[in-house]
Structure formats: structure tokens, C-alpha cells
Amino acid sequence: MKKFLVTFLMLGSLQTFAANPYTDCGIGAALFPNTNWAAVTSNVIWDVGTTALISATASEDTCSGGEAQTAMLIHDKLETLESQMMLEDGNVLASLTETMNCSSANINSDIRASYKEVLADKDYSSKNRVEKSESIYFMLKNNSSVQQHCSIFS
Amino acid sequence: MGFFFIVSLHAKDLAFFESKYDLNDIASSFRWNRLIDKKNINLDQAQEYFLTFKNGDVDHTQELRASLKMLLNKNADLQKEFICQFPARAIFLSSILKELNPIDTSFCKEYSRWTEDNSIDDISFIYVNGYLENPASFFGHTLLKFNSSKTNQANDLLNLSLNYGANTGNDKAVPYVIRGLTGQYKATLQPEKFFRLSAQYQEFQMRDMWEFKLSLSNFEKDLLLAFTFEMLKKEYVYYFLSDNCAYRINRIIGFAVGKDPLPNLLWSSPIDLLHGLDKESLIDKPSHFPSLYSQALKSFEALSVKNKNLYKDYFRSTNSIISNEDPELGYALLQNLNYQKLKSFKKNKIEAVKKIDNQRQQILLNLKPKNIGSFKYDAQPPTVSNFPTKVSHTLHSKNLKYSNGPDKLYSIKIEGSNFTLLELDGYRTKNSEFMFLSPEISLYKDGAKLTQLTLFKILSLDDALIKLPNEKKFSWGVDSGIRQVSSDCFPCTQFFFEAMIGKALSLTNNLSFVLMPFLAVHENKQDRGEISGGARLFSIYRLNKTRMYFEIEDTNFPNAKAWNTSKYTFKLQQNIDKSRSFKVEVFKDDFAKGLMVSFNKYY
Questions:
Q1: How many domains does chain A have?
Q2: Nearest CB partner across the interface for A41, out of B136, B157, B346
Q3: Fewer CB in 10 Å around end: N or C, chain B?
Q4: Do B335 and A83 touch (CB under 8 A)?
């Protein structure tokens, strides 16, 4: 229980990632587990935070920081985010720029341009959910506008 | 500030408060009882939750004294430690014991993070509706959301939510049901960013969510935040029917406002809690978070006629290529494909997911930037539905062709947290039924009998007027329990289980026709055998608060053809308001005809 509390409370930590939050924090292993009838009931929590941390190799602090939150947002809202990046509009895209601590500069068109290059990869559609999320995460990390206007990866 | 705070507390000691206040009285107050309550708490870590836990129990007055001693402690560090560990107790006690200064928690790092440095503007109650593919979700679900001024109002997804549920370890269906009903799961409060729960409920489970801002004073809000902080440490025993999300969220809100909004029933149900909050004027007008399915449907509905045809063509032809000059068409197609993808993902259909993703990739690549805007949904909030618990009083008058059974009966039927086709169902999947443990007792001149017991009934007609073009929907239902063998004998009940599957057709938004073949297995009563089958053809007409239902049912008994019968039924229900309705029902089959008049009261 204390782990949950510490996990949550460390959000906003200034810990930065050198590696991959998806593998280092187990993001993606928990929210959509192998389904069975019981797993998708209303009153079930499949301990997203704990499961992620159990399979994490990075520290608890690191896995609850802003980068991990960005990675989680991409993974959880993947389909909607993909649409909104191309439309350059929408609440998930707005949440993404907020979670990356971006200034008020409008970088949506630059994100769109970079994401289009990711999409152009003919193997993109055959990647699984975590792999697609990783592609987007690192696309953002390497995007010059994100580097210039958002503080999350610095 | 901190030094002044400590010095002024030292002016009074425990003896002063014991002489001025009745500490026993405070210790037996609603809020203190809630703070110290140990019902269904895993007491393995009791030393963390209580100061005076001893021999498996804690005395409320001793715990209050110990808490007050800590607040008055001359050791500033110990005093601070207490406030930071038990902020709810500190805030509550300082509101009652006027000589205590208002509590300052700014030095509590963990608690300050919990309150996001005191930036929580307001708190919302969120209701997630049930969905009929999963019986365990029929009762709905509730959670809380903390709305921070630090979060851009348009980016609600980043606010914190507080969810409560059992840790089931992915048990299979049968052990899940048994363990959930018998208290073999542990449960905890789980804080999550709202986007996680939005993804889980709206997209993965295709459920609508409704957000109601709670009408709380600043003091009540502070109490709620502090109490939930204290609860984070605790592990509870989970009971699916009684100690579930509704129970725990009710206790949180109840502590904050000084009274539990959930009615005192044998079970705890999210919809009961929502109505309770509404009754106490604790909630405001709702915001609606539609499911991904609703979004897909709406984006299709909003297309021009030309685009609708292109949309349908796309799903008819596997090689169809769409010109993406119009982003609205591309967006609508994507929404549909997103829905299809998550449906397949949930069923672990990896190849189907890849195929859909391939289609999505093509559309995404050609999608032009556009502000799609928001759609207007017609959805009614859950608060406009009938109250969930129904008690029906019915007078029966029957004309029996062969039998000498009673021709006049009075029956009383109880349905808790249930709903039928004839209720005001606003937010639920339209034209659906859910009943669970619902008995009917009939009184007649010779006594009283149990004439019906619904163990479990679900009916989903899926008769939406507008459907996604590539979506194959059918109507289905299951029913089980005890029922009368036929209308002409009394009492002659039998255990039964019935399954039905069919198709519905909506002619207008208000009128549907349904054909449902069915198959039943039952006790062999009156030599009718153990199997029967047949079909029901029925129509439902809805106009404001009026519901009309007409049915032709054909039942065949393979081993007792003499009992084959066709039955005609007409029902008219007038819903007066959320708490009352009346119904008239007439029927005729080969063995009897009858009239029933019911008055229904909803609680």
C-alpha cells in the first residue's frame, strides 16, 4: 500500500529517463492484461501501478515521474492520440503537451509532421501496442520543437 | 507560523479539554466513528492505522484521547508526525475543539502532494454505467475525481481519480464469483490519473461515464481529501454485494458531509448511491463522457449523406480506398476502426488487430488537420431513471378454462437495483433488462405462496435506430429462477433456465419490433417435460413516460404437445415520476385469460 502512495506522490519528480519507460517500468503489461471474463469487470483493479512496478527495473521514483506519465498516456490513449496528432486537435493531444510541460507555443503541426514519418514506416501497423507507443514516445523525444518548447525530456 | 502554532497549543493541556468537552460524546460522533471504524479492514497492519490498538480492538474514546495528546505534544516533531499521518483526525478535532488552532499541513510533504499543494478546487463523483456483455458490471461503478486548478480545465484527463476495487489476480469466472461474494478478495483505494480510467471504461469496456461535481464546502472538501489520504494505507475485505465501490465511496462522502447518502439497504449499489446524492442535493448537473462506441456512432451520424454512402462503401469493400479530402469522413472511419480494433484487442484476436491497424494506417496517413469539434449527444443522465428498487403491488383477475385455481390474487414483488423494458431507463442501453434475486409472493383465499423468483435475468435488444454499418447486432437474453408453469394452474411453480437469441428492428426512435426464439430447461411439472421452446414476437413503443408492450408467444413442449400454447400479452405502463408508476396488463392463451393492475413504488 505504501508503494501505491509513494508511487503516486512522486509524480512530477525531476528524475529523467536515459532508457525506455515501457521496458524499464513495465508500462503496457498491466492495463490490458490477457483478458478473461473476470478481468474486465467494473470493480476490478488490476493494480496498474503495482504490476508495472513489479516488472520494473528502474526505481519507483523514476517510474512515477513525468516521462513515465507521458509514456502511459501514449499507451493508454493510443488510438485516440494517433487520430488527434494527425488532426492537430483534441483533448488527448492537449493533455500530452501539458504532461510534457510544453510552453504555450503551438507545436501540434511539428508533432504531426514527425508522426507522419513514423506512420510512413510500412511495418508500423504490424507493431504491437507497446511498440507503437515506444515509436511515438521516442518520436516526441527526438522532435526539435518538443526539445525546444517542452521541458520533460531535458 | 509553525512556531506560533506550537506555542499557542501548549497553553492548553489534555485536562483542560477533558474538563471542557465531553470526549466520550465526541468519540461516539458520526465522523469520529467513521475515522476509527475497523469494519472489513485487514488488521494485520493495525498498528499503522490506530494509536491504541490492543487485543484485536480499539476503544474510540481512548483513541481520541491518544490523538488529542499527540496534537498537544510538546515535542514539535511528534506533533507534526501525527498531523501528517492523520490529517483527517487533526482537521476534524480542530473543528470541534475550538481552542485548537486550525491545522496547518503545509509541512506534510506526502499530504501536500496528495492535495497538489492545496490546489484541488473541487471533487467530482463519477458514475460508470453497466454494460451487458459483462454481468459483474451491471450494477455500474463509481469513483471520485479531484479537479486541480493546476490542470488546464480543458485537459481533465490529467486530474487525479480515486478508484476502489478488489485485487482479483485475474481469477477465472467461477472462482471470481465465489470469492467476490464471500469476501476472499482484498481491496484498496487506487489513485490514478483520469486518463487511465477513461481508457479503461470508455474505450476498453465501451461504457459511458457521467461526472457530477459534488457540492461541498471548503471544510467538507478538506475533510474528504484528508480522509482519503488516511484510507490509502488501508486494505479492506471486498464483498461484491455489500462492501464494494459504492459502499466505500459512500463512506468517504458521508464522512465529509456528516451523513451517508447511500440508503440503508442490504446491498450497496452505485445507482442507489447516485440517487442518494441527488436526493441530498449533493451533486450538480452532469458532464457526459461517451463510450468509444457512442463516439463512433455519433461521428457516423453527423456525416453528410454523401459521406455516409462513402462510409458504407468503405466497409462493404475490402479493397476500398477512401479519398480523404474531407477530414470528417476520415475521422468517422477512424472512430469506427478504433472501436473495432479495441473489440478485437480485448478478445486477443491478434491478426484482426493487425488487419484493422493496417486500415487505420492508410486513413491516418491521408488525414488532414481539422478541428472536429464536439458532438451533441442525446444521452440522458442516470439521475432521470426510476429509483432502482421497485416494489410492485398487483391485483390479478383470471378466467381459467380448465382449472379450479383462484381467480383473484394479490401479489407483491420486490426488485432491488433492477430495471425492465418498461422503466424510465435514460442512460442505460435502451430497451434492456436486468433483474437479480427478485421474489414475488402471492396472497389468495387459501394462503400465500412464492409464485416467482428471478435469480438472474438479462435482456439486451440492441435495437438502436442507427447502427454502425459494419456492426452485426443481435438481441439476446437469459432468464433463470422459479416461475409459474402456466397461467392456468396455481400454485404450480418450477425451476427453469431459459436462453433466447433473435433480432430487433427499430422503425423509429420510439418503436421497435423484436423476434426472439427461445429454449428452456425446467422441472417436469404436470407432465410437461423438461424442455420447451418457441418464439416471442413483440413490440415496444415509448412515448415520454409511457411504455406500451405487445407480445405473441408461441410455446411448444416436445414431450407434451397437449400443452402447446400461443399467448397474447399487452402491457401499458405509465411512469408518473422517478418513484411511481402504474401498469395494466391483459393476456390470453389457450388455457386462461386475465387482467392485472399494478402500482409500482420505487425507492
A1: 2
A2: B136
A3: N
A4: yes
Contacts by residues A50-53 (CB-CB < 8 Å, ≥ 24 positions apart): A50/A3, A50/A4, A51/A26, A52/A25, A52/A26, A52/A27, A53/A3, A53/A7, A53/A25, A53/A26
CB pairs under 8 A between A and B: 188
- Cross-chain residue pair B134–A37, CB shorter than 8 Å: yes
User: In the sheet that B185-193 helps form, which strands lie side by side, from edge to edge?
Assistant: B236-238, B185-193, B160-166, B141-148, B120-128, B209-213, B287-289
pLDDT at A14 (0 to 100): 40
Does the predicted TM-score (pTM) go above 0.80? yes
Element (H, E) at B159: none
Q: Give residue A20's pLDDT.
A: 84
User: Could you say which residues from 2 to 41 on chain A have a Cβ atom under 8 Å away from some Cβ of chain B?
Assistant: 2, 4-5, 8-12, 31-41
Both A110 and A127 in a single domain?
A: yes
Shortest distance, CA B563 to any CA of chain A (angstroms): 39
Range of the domain at A51: 2-11+20-63
pLDDT digits (tens, 9 = 90+) for B81-94: 999 999 999 999 99
Q: What percent of chain B has pLDDT over 90?
A: 58
Q: Say if A106 is an interface residue toward chain B (CB within 8 Å).
A: no
CA distance B590 to chain A (A): 43
Least CB-CB distance to A77: which of B160, B188, B199? Answer: B199
Cα–Cα distances in angstroms (integers) from residue B428 to residues A55, A88, A153, B425, in the given order: 39, 33, 44, 6
Domains of chain B: 2-114 (no CATH), 120-289 (no CATH), 305-365 (no CATH), 385-602 (2.40.160.40)
Is A77 part of the contact surface with chain B (CB cutoff 8 Å)?
yes
Contact present, B301 and B466 (Cβ < 8 Å):
yes
